[in-house]
Description:
Elements: E1 4-11, H1 23-26, E2 32-36, H2 44-57, E3 60-64, H3 82-102, E4 109-110, H4 114-122, H5 124-137, E5 142-145, H6 150-157, E6 161-167, H7 191-204, E7 206-208, E8 214-216, E9 222-226, H8 232-245, E10 249-250
Parallel strand pairs: 1-2, 1-9, 1-10, 2-3, 3-4, 4-5, 5-6, 6-9
Antiparallel strand pairs: 7-8
Helix pairs in contact: 3-5, 4-5, 5-6, 7-8
Amino acid sequence: MKLQIDINCDLGESYGAFKIGNDEKIMPHITSANIACGFHAGDPIIMAQTVNLAKKHGVAVGAHPSYPDLLGFGRREMHLTIEEIKNYTIYQVSALQGFAKIAGLNLQHVKPHGALYNTAVKDEETSRGIVDAVKALDKSLIIFAPPKSVLAKIATEAGLRVAHEFFADRAYNADGSLVSRKQPNSIITEPSLVLERTIKVLREGKVSAFNGETVTLGKVHTICVHGDTPTAIKLTEVLKKELVKSGIQVMPVGKFI
């Protein structure tokens, strides 16, 4: 049986007069789009445009909810109650559901953004708030989460499908967490290295950590390239082309998990 993988990217992160990334050039090279819902980036106009762009290219759409932190791009941790996290998630996901419905699409997944994602990876209460929101809105939605994370565990226990995610353009620590963006070389911009790391993860379930140690991730279902990575267009283009050339099926994750 052929290996199957999804390529996802965080898109729709422009807002107002501010343009971030290049969604038009990235979209043809991915299979799932995580669309910002207004709390860290994005706005109603951008959300509608990004959903329609995804539809044009046959890309599955998912919500990319975050902490309410527009000034910090959602990358600053906030201490919130389960109820707050649940309601903030419902607010954002349901907004994107509306735009998807108008476009004749169904949401495929939910992937928390930035600090909300990083906190949910290790914190049960944060994960429970996100999972409770998703389960209340639509039990068929897939949760994107790192392998072996608290978020993956809570979502699975709640009966939701989970897509284990690998970050192709981010350096890993020996414990499987991501190297802080504040550290040098935390973002990987070289296409050949991104491809090499991805092939290794798909075939062996392993990635080399920042310090040279080997991290075992196990089976992954979706590969992330961040839309604001400087070489994102080239990374996604090379990744999809070379994976297909290697005999790996690249398709939206909802089609195979």
